[in-house]
Amino acid sequence: MKKLIIGVVALGLAGCVALFMARHHVLDLMEGMSGAAVSSSLMDGLATEEGAVEGGSEARQARAEPDAPRLPEYSGPTAAYIEEGADNRDVELSFDVEDNREPTGIMNLNNRHIQRVMAQNQRELLSCYGDQLADYPDLEGEVEFEFAVRPSGEVAMVRVKDSTLRSHEAEDCFVERARHWSFPATDQSQLARFSTSVDFRF
What we know:
Radius of gyration: 22 Å
Strand order of the largest sheet: 1-2-6-4-5-3
Distance between the termini: 23 Å
Structural class: alpha+beta
Largest sheet: 6 strands, antiparallel
CATH topology of the domain at 25-30 and 75-201: Fusion Protein Consisting Of Minor Coat Protein, Glycine Rich Linker, Tola, And A His Tag, Chain: A, Domain 2
Number of helices: 4
Order of helices and strands: EEHEHHEEHE
């Protein structure tokens, strides 16, 4: 499994930059296919003692640091786009290759193909992440995606397999964007399956 830094994109959130890292691992074509929630708490002991001068530095600091919002309850990843039969490894789907289609010379998708598509579409994922980061500044984590891609390069299945990001809203957005991606066409007659993990850090 390789980890690749595929881009740094400004999110426009108080001048901060999100570092987007992805690692990709191609699964064999015929092979069968959450971390703790981010929380934030302020240090105790900032309240002034009775009789202390109001407006002291500690009191000002306490007022200037409101509690960070907590993430909604998370019961595990649910985001998925699955065409009929695309998630069934027991009965592998087969596709007729068009007679007039020129051979691509690509027998199966490899890391290079996957990394290129991820790099081309990283801004879409970062946009989903940035939308949630605006409400939850401590949001970060790794998301593992599972893909099944048709010989034409169209996505037949994409789902969040595992996640320490723990945000249903962000993960739903990731899947909605990724289902429209196009991968290189292959000369296979079956789905190309692979997984890829993306690390979202603020």
